[in-house]
Amino acid sequence: MKKLVMLTSVLLLALAFTACSSQDDKVIKVGVSFYPFYSADSSKPDILDTIEQQVAEQGYSLEKIVFLNYAEANPALAHSEIDANLIQHELYMNIFNQRSNSNLEIVQPIYHATFALYSSVYNSLDDIEQGETVYIPNDGVNTARALMLLADAGLIELAEGVTFQATTADVSSNPKQLKFVEAPLTAAAGAYDEAGRRLAVMYPTFARSLNLQGDAERLYLETRDAISNAYAVSLAARSDNADDKKIAVLAEALASDAVKDYLANNYSWASTPAF
């Protein structure tokens, strides 16, 4: 009798585990950190809210895993704590893969963020004073992007042939003797604000924290070309799950007209679709 009870318990546990695993297979855990993939204001739907019904029609549900520090979303993905994330472009991902020996890959580009030089003090590039301080990102890949923007604006020159790997050491000409202060992406807006909003290169999602939308305080916009196209904010997964059905469902929804419409209606000042 005891053996029968034990066998029944084992079978019930196995069935419960199978049911739980089956349910998990229908949940897509997506790492998010910033707007427009995550909105702290529940009255303002984000992109994942917009595609939730479309994903549900394919038999899946979305679970947003919010990372206040976006840099934590890649380790979570690499360790299979989430299924995918929406926090980066390919160049940032490649550096993470190299440094951590991980195998993340881009599944679907979503949008090009409008990267810009901001200032509330200067109305033109010519007005910038000698020795002015400019805040730029400090994470390597976005440091290079900021320096390329400043070079394209004609404020500096970079060593010949230097692009995605550029550092301040590669600045070959600096006529205005600009001083570069490197700050985390999440802190750049605050540092810019505290310094009197003189000069900073920022992503719109962080400028938004200062209520800077549209062309407010934008002094120079990054031009769209073959180099800047590599910075498209994208859906990333692991090489061992990138071909899974749930990732395919999510990627299809993120490349839908609904997302194009969302960007056009809610985020056109800060993005252009990348699909």
TrEMBL record:
This is ABC transporter substrate-binding protein. One of its GO terms (cellular component) is membrane. The keyword Membrane applies. Gene3D superfamilies: Periplasmic binding protein-like II. Pfam families: Lipoprotein_9 (PF03180). It comes from Reinekea thalattae. Keywords: Lipoprotein, Membrane, Palmitate, Signal. Its main location: membrane. It is found in: Membrane. It comes from the Bacteria. Belongs to the NlpA lipoprotein family. It is a lipid-anchor. PROSITE patterns: PROKAR_LIPOPROTEIN.
